[in-house]
């Protein structure tokens, strides 16, 4: 959904309304030129020249409206023909009105002449606009023979306006390219974070387990463990974007990973699943699960990501608090979202340890937990007191119109963050 909105933002170019405005301008000004010609028809000695020219201009303008719908269809041959028609109208004015050469009178195309110049500006920027407006200025001066102050004023006005619009278009195009590149980088970063989470939940933990068990067995297994540790460091560095690995690398390898429920990838995006069924495999001898009595329904992707974040939190408990530490999972289903808390009775996290882990490229909290919740539009709060354990509270907002039957309820017999009620062990 996010990528779809990004692609739509890129397609919505700032040039689109400018091209639409140009099409409307061309149509309105050719009608204005015809009305003005009819109002001043008495001064034209060769009336038929004006009628013929304006008829051609009207047909050309209406027939070429699709051409000015965007830069792709506004080709160079079209621009040349369009500008040539405007210049021809200016130069034909003295033939239709012999007195026009020495007087400040309106030319046959009138202000329609600015349309082709603006088309040059939108298509090629300020340089093309400068070229087209210069030709129009030369034609005006040639048609007047003795240009007056008003003639020069009109020439400068068209010149400055077209060049200014051309420059604005160039700046807008550069800004769009920058925005498109930023969106590509953001999408690539999000994909990298997703892959990093998946790798952390699977490959990195397997390599760490091989390293730990190989070292314990000794002999050839120790060499295999050493190689697995090196590969873990290299892979961790790769998925974190080149961050320096921890000194000693594999020596601090995590213990065996918690079982991660397979995400329901084959389910439709709009289908909801019961979060309890994904959290049930985590219940064990030292892991208690307290949940509501009614189903806790979430979209399939959100439920799978939240369950994976819980698995990452339990893995951190085993890694840092030890295999003998106890953990409690509490599920609360509220009207606005689902809150899952993971608490342990370990020694807690020393101050500054999370920042150090992020610098070392370890992804447990930064990506596998907080990254997942951030992508779901939720939050992950971590509270740790040395000697009193750690609690991770993960909140996922509920999509509008998807209230669960259990919304507003807690696990039976629970109060606040108590871990009593329906317990699975």
Automatic annotation (TrEMBL):
Transmembrane segments annotated in the record for this chain: 21-39, 45-65, 77-96
Comp. bias (Polar residues): 415-425
Q: Low complexity: which segments have biased composition? A: 248-259
- List each copy of the DUF5931 domain by range: 8-180
The record's section on InterPro entries has:
DUF5931, HATPase_C_sf, HATPase_dom, Sensor_HK_TwoCompSys, Sig_transdc_His_kin_sub3_dim/P
- Which intervals of the chain are annotated as region Disordered? 248-270, 384-425
Sorted alphabetically, the keyword list is: Kinase, Membrane, Transferase, Transmembrane, Transmembrane helix, Two-component regulatory system
Domain Histidine kinase/HSP90-like ATPase positions = 306-399
What is the recorded name of this protein?
Answer: DUF5931 domain-containing protein
Species: Streptomyces tremellae
